[in-house]
Amino acid sequence: MSIFIKLKWFFKENWRMYSIGILMLFLTDLSRVIPPYMIGLFTNKVVDHKLTWSYLMIFLAILLLIFLLSYFCRYGWNTHIVKGAALLERTLRKRLYDHYMEMDAPFYQKYRTGDLMSHASNDLSSIQRVASGGILMAFDSTANIILVVISMILFVDWRLTLIAIFPLPFLAIGVSWIMPRLRRAFTAYQEGFSKMSDHAQESFLGMKVIKTLGQSEEDIQAFDQQTDQQVKINAQVARVDSLFDPLATVVMTFSYVLMIILGGQFVLNKTITIGQLVSFTAYLGQLVWPMFALGQLFNVLERGNASYDRVMDLMSEESSIHDDPNGLSEIGVGELNIRVKSFNYPDDPKIILKNIDIKLGEGQTLGLVGPVGSGKTTMLRLLLREFDSYDGEIDFSGHDIRDYKLSSYLSAIGYVSQNNFLFSTNIAKNIAFSNPKIPRAEVEKVAKLAALHDDIMQMPNQYDTEVGENGITLSGGQQQRVAIARALIVNPAILILDDALSAVDARTEKEILNALKGQRQDQTTIISASRISSVINADQILVFKNGKIIERGQHENLVAQDGYYAKTFHEQELASHYEAKLTGGE
Ligand SMILES: Nc1ncnc2c1ncn2[C@@H]1O[C@H](COP(=O)(O)OP(=O)(O)OP(=O)(O)O)[C@@H](O)[C@H]1O
């Protein structure tokens, strides 16, 4: 029942709709207690040989009227309560989705996609059922039981009523024993379901790897184990849930036995008439459904309760990124200053960045190189405001980046990583993702800048060519260039290419870099790369190692320093020289 208290905010917001629905439900239940009373009267007329045609007609007319009223009320409660439940699901889904959108990188590191999906589907459906079936069964069964018992007392006999309902408290004891067990079983079920969807989702995404490494059998086995486990948990749910129905049957049978023994005695003693005993039998029959509905109700409520707690646990997670709604929303061009004394990832004390000090003039290009794992991406992630918890400050265009409104700041940045996500739509829509209304000419312009236009023109439907899920029909280099075009279309104040040219050949790389140089003279560009050729013309090049800047300067200057940069440059030069010889390109 506590789930109703937890959902009080929603029922309060929609009290009008629920009040009408519940009133209609009450009227339906009220209309149900009249026919048994009338059947009793009718039986007495028959037994006393006093039945006339006119009485029969009036009797039938009243019954018809009651059925019509009941039909109208049923329609009324159905539409109001079902509409309310749909509204609750929509409200929670929107809140959850907004929450997912607001959350930071550590949140997505902590929760897996399958888990988040199961919260948004399975859990929300269970909560939605509380506001429809739950409300219906709770009010219907309670109102039914109360009205039937009152009718039994008023129209038959209070002693007989007391004796007939005497076994009911045993049902209540049974329910209080079953409920917590049912809840534990449901929580285990939902958690198991999350793990299962997570596994399925990861397997679908990594299908190529699984198959090429010959792990299909192992994956199937692992999934089978999870489904077997889920079947066991489900059986446990069914075992606990199934305890209620037999208990209700035993209790109701006991009530019937008591009614036959004592009711017969009352008729023989003339305490009640035969008609009243017939009414009583019908009333007792009307108690059967609410009893079973109570069982269903606990199932729905406990499932909803467990799901609500899971969803609220997720919603209580707070983003570590402070977004000031009144923050600056105008972002111009300007200097970029990065001073980070130290940074470690949340939940990991290892210092990843140490004493980073960068000053980049307006419209300049910064190049970042260094061995794998040296901290280049981490620094870019700070610039992208994925983490705010660093010791130091980052200023852009005269303001700390944390003083900008997050959405405004991020929309001024064009970020392209090595692995880009493409949407399963056509190329033009992928490029124009930030503004679907952008004219086709603009889309073509940025595609040309990204050296992609010629490739697109070779495709069957050119800019309308569908790229498949995550751009599966495109080559790695084409995917990267779609992502570059997508970033360029917003004409970002800061463009970040994080190893974003790794899948394109040297000639295309040169073409893109030249185009960017011509196009972005006033704006900041940051290029992180393992290939020195990507950063060779940068105004400032930084070499990272173990989270520190170990060399800095322009290309010639760095080559002269004869350090990591010079060594890597010469090695790469030599490698490309031999490669060109082998392919006959020189
Ligand atoms: N989410 C994370 N939690 C903890 N440590 C992390 C996390 N992401 C990266 N690291 C660690 O931070 C260090 C720097 O990684 P980073 O990705 O910044 O390097 P990089 O220079 O960009 O490397 P690459 O060129 O391979 O992309 C690595 O030791 C890595 O293991």
From TrEMBL:
Residues 338-571 form the ABC transporter domain. It is a multi-pass membrane protein. It is found in: Cell membrane. Residues 20-303 form the ABC transmembrane type-1 domain. Gene3D superfamilies: ABC transporter type 1, transmembrane domain (1.20.1560.10), P-loop containing nucleotide triphosphate hydrolases (3.40.50.300). Pfam families: ABC_membrane, ABC_tran. GO terms for molecular function: ATP binding. InterPro entries: AAA+_ATPase, ABC1_TM_dom, ABC1_TM_sf, ABC_transporter-like_ATP-bd, ABC_transporter-like_CS, P-loop_NTPase, Type_1_exporter. SUPFAM superfamilies: ABC transporter transmembrane region, P-loop containing nucleoside triphosphate hydrolases. Keywords: ATP-binding, Membrane, Nucleotide-binding, Transmembrane, Transmembrane helix. The chain crosses the membrane at residues 20-39, 51-73, 135-156, 162-179, 247-268, 280-301. This is ABC transporter ATP-binding protein.
